[in-house]
Input
Amino acid sequence: MARLWRELYRSCGRDISADECTKAPWSSYCNYRQCGFPSNQLNLRQSQIIHAYFDTRSGLGYSLGRVPIGSCDFSLGHWTCGDFSESLQGFSLMRYEVAILPMIRAAMQLGPMSLLASPWSPPPWMKSNGRYNFGGKLLPQYRAPWSQHFVQFAEEMASRGVPLWGISVQNEPEAATPWESCEWTGDEEASFIRDFLGPALRKAKLDLKIVAWDHNRDGMLQRAACIYSDPDVSEYVWGIGYHWYGDPRFEWWPGRAEVNFEDALRVLAADRKLPAPVMKVLAGSKHLEGAMHFPELRGRLCLDSVRQTAELRPDKHLLFTEGCQELGGRSLSSMLESWKTGERYGMNIIADLNSGCEGWIDWNLCLDELGGPNHAGNFCLAPIICDTRTDEVLLQPSYWFLGHFARYIRPGARRVLCSSSRDLLECTAWRNLDDTLSIVVMNQSESSLEFTLRIAGSGAIMTEAPSHSITTFVVESGASRL
Output
């Protein structure tokens, strides 16, 4: 590996303070690659990647993953789990056995894993457009067979030693993309869960968590309100999954204009109806001194949807299920070693965790030097790039940013109230099951910032967050003073 973890130990109004106020009861931070490698026996590089992600000592210690049901855009082409009819005769996981399951089994040898499975598209013959891609809908007459497809997939995976933890109904149900996709309205997803998927899993005695939505932050509150409005639906649903795409601070989509912040404010004020979330963002944005652009506001409001969804049903759960940096026509070589991409990960994870999210799943574990393979040309970055020309494994800044959460905030950790009186310092704090306290601090500014870290009952230390840095402070169990 290009770098090793450097862990420094020390005994013992511009501050960070942490007080014992526990929140989320279930926590895990990790990732699983959607497509595997064409080998039943891992080679040296594949083993290196698995250890880099899943080894709790030398790697990140991932314990949560996601696998596709059928093909996705990062597959080599369109495919389903065999050629089968409504009776599911001919259902097969042979593609998984060749390419995906060896990698999952290797990861499971390094520690427990909770695996989420998500479909990108039902088989074309079940859909209104008869295609894998460009959206379309599941035809009503195939809702029962499609629910049985979930059951058989889960049973087959378990029989091969890879039990699932949960399933999502549909990856990105409001997208009609050039790759595998299927559109579901909130009412359609709710009725499918209530009348077909939930009862099918219960009848098969499969204790799987059902994750609804599995799309972007900006629509998660509306979908959650629809799903949770019917108690016969919500009884089956573990929680809401969501992605980070559509954040105008990092992505440019045609038709989405960049509006000056003051202009946007005047438009809102003219109607004399400034929504409460907007007022909150404005109140906390004084350091931007009027230079903030509308994409910044929109991006922060998307993050606020996470908190609002958590507050809608505190008894339910939130799971970040996918995020990556899309290349958007740029070459991958121009994005290698992108520290800004790493900071995007850090900022999003901190904001999500502080808003009620209980776990975080990245997109691809690794991609090649082009940002693929991707049969739809939707090339992206990954925390690990495998250069097939030189046989190099390149750990990107996002890998190290992810490590500050995955290595030091372990499954079962509980969130601790943590606040910063400096707007430029972002932080989150968690109490692990071994009673260690992990505090992640990030500084995206151009200046090094000195601050006092105060922990209730343990005292305080003066320390520093270098410019463009992420730092994790770990207070060992039983430490009475910092």
